[in-house]
Amino acid sequence: MKSTTNCKIVKILDLSDKQLLELSRKNVLSLSLEEMKAIQNYFKKLKRNPTDVEIETIAQTWSEHCKHKTLTGVIEYTEEKGSQKVRRTYRNLLKETIFKATVELNKKWCLSVFKDNAGVIEFDSKNGVAFKVETHNHPSALEPYGGSATGIGGVIRDILGVGLGAKPLANTDVFCFGNPNTVASKVPEGMHHPKRIVKGVVSGVRDYGNRMGIPTVNGAVYFDDGYMANPLVYCGTMGIIPKNKIEKKVNFGDLILVVGGRTGRDGIHGATFSSIQLDQESDVTAVQIGNPIVEKKVLDVMLKARNLNLYRAVTDCGAGGLSSAVGELGEKTGAVVYLNKVPLKYQGLSPWEIWISEAQERMVFAVPPKNKKKIVEIFKKENVEAVFIGEFTKDKKLTLIYNNDVVTSMDMKFLHDGVPKPTRLAVCKVKEEKEQKPVKMTSSEISKALRASLADLNVCSKEWIIRQYDHEVQGQTVIKPLQGNDIEVSGPGDAAVIFPYTVVRGTKKGIVLSNGLNPQYGKINTYKMAASAIEEALRNAVAVGSDVEKMSILDNFCWGNPNKPEILGSLVRAANACYDMSKAFDVPFISGKDSLHNEYSIGGKKYSIPPALLISAMGVIENVANTITMPLKNNGNKIFVLGITRDELGGSVLAKIKNIKDGIVPNVYPKESKEIMKRIYKAINKNLIESCHDCSEGGLAVAISEMAFSADRGVKIDIDAIKTETIRSMTIAEILFSESNGRFIVEVYPDNEEKFQEIFNCTVFSKVGYVNDDKKIIFESKKNKIKVQEDPETLLKVWQSTMNW
Amino acid sequence: MKKVKTLILRTAGTNCDYETQAAFELCGAVVECVHINTLIEKKDKIFEYDILAFPGGFSYGDDIASGKILSNEVKNKLGDKFKKFALSDKPIIGICNGFQVLVKMGLLPEPKLFEQISTLSYNDSDKFECRWVYLKTEKKVKNESNCIWTKNLPDIISLSIAHGEGKFIPNNKKLLNSLNKNNQIVFRYSSKDGSKPEYPLDPNGSIEQIAGICNTKGNIFGLMPHPERYVFALQHPAKEGFDGEYGWGKIIFQNAVDFVK
């Protein structure tokens, strides 16, 4: 080990605690004192100082982004409910909640869960489908376009890097932003205006996703000022993979091949920088630079190489770059890499920069020596650069060589398992939720509230975004994000269904994608937020015709600083809700990701984002012909509300609009909901439901109006017929705008009514009205002398105008 | 029965090759997706095929202008072969990015000329948009055109579009007149009832709502909408189609396959 001009020895053996921390801070290592000391001790045993390459390698591998130290570390949790205190110690929160549910549910059709770049479930006897959702928050705050583009580019590579590579079929995207109408003077200094962030992020996803030829079919946008300086950008990709390509294995002697983009100085410290709060000094060079066409070329050829069995393993270069990719593949074997063989965009990179750069569009393969010539040839044929940079060994060491000098020599075991488990404190003071004072409104006030709800940023049409994405490429999007009875109207679909006939010829099956997210609930109760998100994701999928028994889910936690016990405590509660709901709905988690440290500082004061748990759902549909959309279909058809309406206005859209204090956040009643979900599937498959819509933000008033104006039809609803919880009587406004979970609106052809009611026997449902032939949307309560009447056309315009940019 | 062989030309950024292949295969053709490098290596390979398709996508990222780099590459490296193929009356289709390539290479509107005399420019809305539109087939306006691809279609069909550069502009009035006179304008954006559409049913502001054109012979067809995304009724937003199962896009591929047979 020697110091060369390009590689420096970092003297840490004699450093004091204070100096160790200073070193971590100065070099953006994001390592704690305990971790720095573990490194110091390791090198004390080796009786030498580390090189900069070694220190950087450890920092990337041990980053929160790569290792999930918080969720897999020790958490001392205290839950306070009034004067009661309950304590519990988690040795590994993930394993004891989310993963535990999956293990206990033990679904045979879960083919690969929580171990690869994506979760894989069974599609049919020959194929699996893989799904992964990632976050790219900090880069998108600094450089919205590049941040989101490389976010989608990165998650696509996760799908290319699952097993021996899946073919991407669809993308999803979910964003949280600050209010785009904020006056410029209110935007924190040094931060982009939220509207600029929205436009940049959407353009980034558009340009990358469209050029990759992958339809973006499902998503959500959530606006809250808590995301002003730290937006959330979730990107997901679903792909299809032959069952016999799901496992990868690296053998000693396999060659390391890097394919695709060249390595440059972009994306240095991406993995470690994501664990540091954002402020106006944050460094833009941490953001990567994307080029979708390079990635598209890699995709095209690697699927050919996969089908020719030319390699034994593959993974993507994501956070931590080559350091993570080679480190992961070589964990059990060992690896030697010749850094000067790595193709560079330009000269002048130091060895450590080459090793940890997060330059985009790179995949790393393990190639048996006998295929050496053939695999390079096949890539070369389509102008894709593929270069061997080393080989997998059997010494269980990571060895890096630069210009004949050994610049790194470390044990894989230390690198992967040497990170000390932190112990963190978590506290949750459960807030007591109080019912609001009865919300009494006149007919005209209800009218106004309905319009305001439809125009609300979190309810309004997202057509401006959706149409910029090619959501039809590949020709397989049979249930589309925007729905109507002819091609012109664009109602809000609950979920998307992909019919993968171009890949699996002759199939009748489909893949459903949906999501659930509601940070507003999390401000009051993160347990209920998580439970509601899970139920909403499932409800959305069920509404288009999915079988809840064939669903799987993904978790994406975006939280604030986990070093603050209250913030970590709220996360523990959400994780517990995940376990409870996964078990109760009998729906397994198959993959997930967390992005902690979503914190920013303004004028020296630190702010954490409102916690957000995104639940993404994927399921297999037996017959795509048996799927339905949400616009009303025919005059005279009957309208039913399935499920119970409860007095649950906490965190609701109405509460926000009318500034209502208090209110109960919607609870989840899994047993009740699941019975309804199972029966909807049955009824849809017997052709007994014409249209179906999930009831969530904005309650019944919004959901029913959406079904009507998306069809340009009227509807007459008798509010008195809606079944509510009987504990206390609800006002009309509460019935119309409560956001109780477990509810669907369905449209039934009169002749099918009897058969329909038979199926829903034993569940709570109410027949509330019919599709009107005079094109008026009417909500009426004779008992309370309330009559709200609106034109579908007007409401459609109100709903569309908010984000008609 | 004769096997109808279709070549789908691929390059960096091609991305509608799978569904275009599926559409031709559904109509009984044998399909190969061939990378342009292979054609450059074996220049006469193209004559092994009966039908040539330029699929949608973002060839070379649509850098410079949509389809420009690929059209130059084809013209400079394979120009005489492609011209010969085109003049042999064999069917050629260019969809979306493929249409842009045909127009910028000059195979459309007239392969004999083989020069760019029209273009597809930025949408009036100045953004990429994906939506379904109505198309009026030419026979609604005049007599049936020569186009072999668009026989047996109803007066109005719907297809999906997805593009940022789809505004068709001929170089001059004379060209526009001759396109009209020769029934070369086979698809126009339309309202549901056939009247002149407004944005967004006119999605890009094309001159005279032109959505697709053919050469005078009728064997070469270019269009911005995506017929390959509507071969099954299931793919339609309201699941409409014909024979209870198929989408109107299928007819277009069927016409070419039947023509070769």
Give an overview of the whole structure.
The complex is a heterodimer of chains A (805) and B (261). Chain A is an alpha+beta fold and 805 residues long. In chain A, 61% of the residues are buried. Chain B has one domain (5-260): Rossmann fold (3-Layer(aba) Sandwich), CATH 3.40.50. Chain B is an alpha/beta fold. Helix content of chain B is 25%, strand content 23%. In chain B, the strands form 2 sheets. In chain B, strands 2-1-3-4-11-10-9-6-7 form a 9-stranded mixed β-sheet, sandwiched between helices.
Q: What's the SSE blueprint?
A:
The complex is a heterodimer of chains A (805) and B (261).
Chain A: H1 17-26, H2 33-46, H3 52-61, H4 64-67, H5 69-72, E1 74-81, E2 84-90, H6 93-96, H7 98-105, E3 110-112, E4 119-122, E5 127-135, H8 137-142, H9 144-160, E6 167-177, H10 194-212, E7 216-223, E8 232-242, E9 255-260, H11 270-273, H12 292-307, E10 313-316, H13 321-329, E11 335-338, H14 351-356, E12 362-367, H15 372-381, E13 386-392, E14 397-402, E15 405-411, H16 412-417, E16 423-429, H17 443-455, H18 463-466, E17 477-479, E18 482-483, E19 491-492, E20 496-498, E21 510-516, H19 519-522, H20 526-543, E22 551-558, H21 565-585, E23 589-595, E24 599-602, E25 605-608, E26 612-621, E27 638-642, H22 653-657, H23 670-685, E28 691-694, H24 699-709, E29 714-718, H25 732-737, E30 744-748, H26 753-760, E31 765-772, E32 777-781, E33 786-790, H27 792-801
Parallel strand pairs in A: 1-16, 6-7, 11-14, 22-23, 29-32
Antiparallel strand pairs in A: 1-2, 3-4, 4-5, 5-8, 6-8, 9-12, 9-13, 10-12, 11-13, 14-15, 17-20, 18-19, 20-21, 21-26, 22-26, 24-25, 27-30, 27-31, 28-30, 29-31, 32-33
Chain B: E1 5-10, H1 17-26, E2 30-35, H2 36-41, E3 51-54, H3 68-87, E4 92-95, H4 97-105, E5 118-121, E6 129-137, E7 156-163, E8 167-170, H5 173-181, E9 185-190, E10 210-214, E11 220-223, H6 249-260
Parallel strand pairs in B: 1-2, 1-3, 3-4, 4-11
Antiparallel strand pairs in B: 5-8, 6-7, 6-9, 9-10, 10-11
Helix pairs in contact in B: 3-4
